[in-house]
């Protein structure tokens, strides 16, 4: 299996009323814009309240609800504050409606662009905002719909914000301390009452203990294993039995599962840059054995290194991008990671119908999520887009 680096950021300090400026307020919320997906860590044991104070018998399900409400209110209030600028443009379209065929597309486009700009400020591409509008059942390409914007109620905006939040800031709930007895009832209730969310039972403590035992050579353990094996000659400590019980109940300690679920929820685009579409070999020079392709959480942050395998194997390099990324975005990412240099010249996308040639794509063409590639003789594998980009020079 292929492992891909991620950047995890601990953003602490959210308190009820943050959208009104309490606690770190908007400073905290603005930091969330760096994320593609949020993992909300909840104390499922009920021994910590929503302000981090030790307690007993606390219902953690309330914490899940108010965090989502904070995010919703933060975005809704920002949109509502500037919504009049959209209404002004929409009124011009509204005044043309009685003249039916003369409804101006130019005016409607102006109102649409302004509204989309209100949501694009959260580092969301227009494609993401467009998906949210479609999910909300709003077609701003229709001048008749734009003409009705002045009559929108708060419920219209709340529905759009809820759909935008679902797509731009998907949330995975990590139900921590799943190994404690008091967590059982809370985990069952949360899974039942928040069935629409990804809720993963987690024991960070036991995962940490297993990693320590692995480093000591006492257990055979791979991250996310569902079977724990004691290999040391000494008797296992009590924590090993605790870990076995938790893994038997939930399948794993949940830590890797929570991260994997977050990645799946964000629906990233995995792009495989190659030097040659016929051989699908790596994009870098053939002697790059001692170098690394640097990749970040969205393909543009050169601070995590992945050592390449020798001899330029097939589809060695992989860059993770946002959905809606275009060819030019991948080129920029590869330049930032010093894989390519110079100016963009040409790009070709692997096409299974003509694997020897590929299909020419433009710099602003949006990449599709997946395609089929011949993995072995008589077998096919569905992966992300395979792309050959040619530039004026290679990076050194």
The biggest beta sheet is recorded as:
6 strands, mixed
Write down the secondary-structure element order: HEHHHHHHEHEHEEHHEEEEEHEEEEE
- For the termini, the CA-CA separation is 30 Å
Low-confidence stretches: 98-103, 286-310
Overall outline = flat
Radius of gyration: 25 Å
Helix content bin: 25-40%
Helix-and-strand structural type:
alpha+beta
Strand content: 15-25%
What is the number of strand segments?
15
Number of helices: 12
Query: What is the residue-averaged pLDDT?
Result: 83
3D structure, described in words:
The chain is an alpha+beta fold and 396 residues long. The chain contains twelve helices and 15 strands.
List strands and helices in order, with pairings:
Elements (H helix, E strand, L loop, with lengths): L24 H7 L6 E6 L17 H21 L1 H12 L10 H16 L5 H10 L7 H5 L6 H15 L2 E6 L6 H11 L4 E4 L2 H12 L3 E2 L8 E2 L7 H13 L4 H12 L2 E8 L4 E2 L10 E2 L10 E2 L12 E3 L5 H10 L3 E10 L9 E3 L9 E4 L5 E4 L2 E9 L2
Parallel strand pairs: 1-2, 2-3, 6-15
Antiparallel strand pairs: 4-5, 6-7, 6-10, 8-9, 11-12, 11-15, 13-14
